Each structure stands twice: as C-alpha cells, then as structure tokens.
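> call design_seq(struct)
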C-alpha cells in the first residue's frame, strides 16, 4: 500500500483549512503548524504541530518526515526558511518568496523585467518622499516593504507629515495614486518543472483594503486586457521560479483600446481571490 505524501504547511488560518479540504480530495496528508488546537485549521487537522513560524523546535517537528513544506502566508522568518531547506523541499523556495515578502524587492525585479507597475520610488527619509511627491504629484500611496496585508502597512499621504506618526525609520515604498477603473487578479499554479495552469482572470472589489467581492471570469474589461493579465501572471511565475499557487493583483487603467493593467502585489499561496475555485 502506497503511503500518501505529507505536505507540511506553516499557518493555521482559513487558507490552510481550505488547503486541508483539497488535500483530502487529492489523497495528500496535510500537516499544519497551528498556534491553537481550536483555531481554524486545528479544528479540522489531526496531523499538526503547535508553535509559531519563528519557533524552530516547532518547525523541526512540523517537517519531520514531510515531503514538502509550504505556507499559507508570507510572514516567514529567513532563519525558518534556512532551517527547513536543509531538511525538506521548500515550495515556493526562498528565492521566489522574497518577492511576495518584500514589496521593494518586488518592484525592483518587476521593473527590471519590463512588467507594467505604478510609478514608484524607494524613500529613506521625508526629503526623498517630498521630492517624489513633487515629481509625480500628491497624494501618494506609501507602503511598508514588509509585513503589510489587507490594507495594513499602507497609507494615503498628502505630504510627508502624514506618515511621520507611524514611520519608524527604514525605507518605504512610495507609489503614484493610480486612477484605476477596476481591479483584477491573475491566479495560476506552477510545478517545479515549469508547467503552468491558469484559472480565468477574476475581477475584484476591495472594501477598506480587504477583498469583498470576486467575479470570475472578470467582468467590465476587454478580453484583450484579461489575456494581458494572464500572460503577465504566467511570465512572473516562470521568471521568478514560483511553485504552487501565485496570485497577481493588478489595477485596470485606461479606456477602450488604451485599457491595460499595472501590477499591484503578489501572493505566493492560496489567495482570497481564488476561493471560488474550490
């Protein structure tokens, strides 16, 4: 009798719980790192380890005997990634996950690839933020490079004074405020050997930085725009070496033949724009 593969996942929230449902259907044993037995994933997962992503003892217990390690969120310490990679296949690898963890690294890499993005700049102090705002016009969107999600770590700034109260030092990502007409997400899965399967591009509606509505296939955009979004997602997955699920959130800008997309953010995990696929 064949032993089912064991996929270890860091995270015990709703996304890991959804992964458990799919794992059962695929005959895969999913082992989750949970912070509470009565949490979202802990309630439906027998095979689990208790602890946080920074608890190396818990990580060792999680990956013991596992075939692969993956994640339900990007907030994974570098030391955890290094420790796990010595023992088990980590997918997506740290070299790819970096671009979902660090928004500045993501912007630099995508820009070097010629991927369309909003106008942006790294700013290390108020004077640099002032210069960028003067160059492209206020207001701006200002983001912390790491740690933000669902609207956290993102602020609308009309001047440097708007970020002084929470800017704790270090670089920020400053971006132009995009006059978008809609938002879409390209969702795909990629194998380590490079095979890619894409779901239909979906249109999304955000409320207070949180995805509130998803329609797939996308509505209100040209078929050519949806094709462009899908191709951008597939190119990003291939060139960054992403494995597993990738979601690419994009702004839709322009009208008619000038309609196109700008990449907003990346997520290398199951994503709220893909709940409709299960």
């Amino acid at each position: 009798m064949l032993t089912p593969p064991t996929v270890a996942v860091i995270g015990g929230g709703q996304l890991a719980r959804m992964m458990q449902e799919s794992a059962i259907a695929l005959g895969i044993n999913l082992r989750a790192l949970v912070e509470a037995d009565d949490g979202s994933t802990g309630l439906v997962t027998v095979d689990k380890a208790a602890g946080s992503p920074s608890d190396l003892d818990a990580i060792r217990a999680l990956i013991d005997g596992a075939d692969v390690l993956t994640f339900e969120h990007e907030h994974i310490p570098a030391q955890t990634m290094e420790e796990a990679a010595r023992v088990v296949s980590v997918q997506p690898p740290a070299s790819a996950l970096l671009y979902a963890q660090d928004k500045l690294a993501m912007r630099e890499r995508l820009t070097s690839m010629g991927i369309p993005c909003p106008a942006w700049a790294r700013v290390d102090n108020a004077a640099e933020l002032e210069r960028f705002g003067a160059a492209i016009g206020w207001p701006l969107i200002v983001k912390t490079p790491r740690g933000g999600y669902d609207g956290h770590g993102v602020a609308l700034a009309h001047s440097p004074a708007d970020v002084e109260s929470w800017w704790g030092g270090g670089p920020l990502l400053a971006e132009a405020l995009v006059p978008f007409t809609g938002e879409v997400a390209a969702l795909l899965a990629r194998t380590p050997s490079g095979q890619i399967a894409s779901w239909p591009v979906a249109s999304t509606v955000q409320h207070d930085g949180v995805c509130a509505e998803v329609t797939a296939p996308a509505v209100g955009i040209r078929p050519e725009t949806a094709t462009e979004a899908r191709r951008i997602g597939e190119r990003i997955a291939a060139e960054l070496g992403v494995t597993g699920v990738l979601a690419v959130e994009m702004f839709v800008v322009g009208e008619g033949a000038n309609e196109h997309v700008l990449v907003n953010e990346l997520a290398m995990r199951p994503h709220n724009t893909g709940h409709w696929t299960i």
